[in-house]
Design goal:
The chain is of the alpha+beta class. It has three helices and five strands, in the order αβββαββα. Pfam families: YjhX_toxin.
Length: 85
C-alpha cells in the first residue's frame, strides 16, 4: 500500500499511543482535527486531507465517538522508525 511520508509520520505517532481528536459541525461533517502524541504534544503535520486519506484506507478508526486511533491494518502498514529522542 502506498503511504506518503506525512501519512507515515501520523501513523507512527498513533502507533506509539497518540490519538486524533475531532470536532463536528451540525451536518455531522468533521471540520477540525488535532493530533496529539502520547506525551500530549500537538502534531502539526496532521491535516484534514491526511486524516481523510487515512480514514478512507481504513488505517485509523474511532469506536463509540472516542478519538481516532490506529487500526491493526494501520499498525502493519507503518514502517518502523528509529526513535530520535
Amino acid at each position: 500500500m502506498n503511504i506518503s511520508k506525512h501519512e507515515q509520520r501520523v501513523l507512527h505517532v498513533l502507533a506509539l499511543g497518540g490519538e486524533i481528536h475531532y470536532s463536528r459541525i451540525e451536518s455531522s461533517k468533521i471540520n477540525e482535527i488535532i493530533c496529539y502524541t502520547r506525551e500530549g504534544h500537538v502534531l502539526s503535520d496532521c491535516t484534514i486531507a491526511i486524516f481523510k486519506r487515512l480514514k478512507s484506507k481504513k488505517l485509523i478508526r474511532s469506536k463509540n465517538s472516542q478519538p481516532y486511533r490506529i487500526t491493526p491494518l494501520g499498525a502493519g502498514s507503518v514502517r518502523s522508525q528509529m526513535m530520535q529522542r
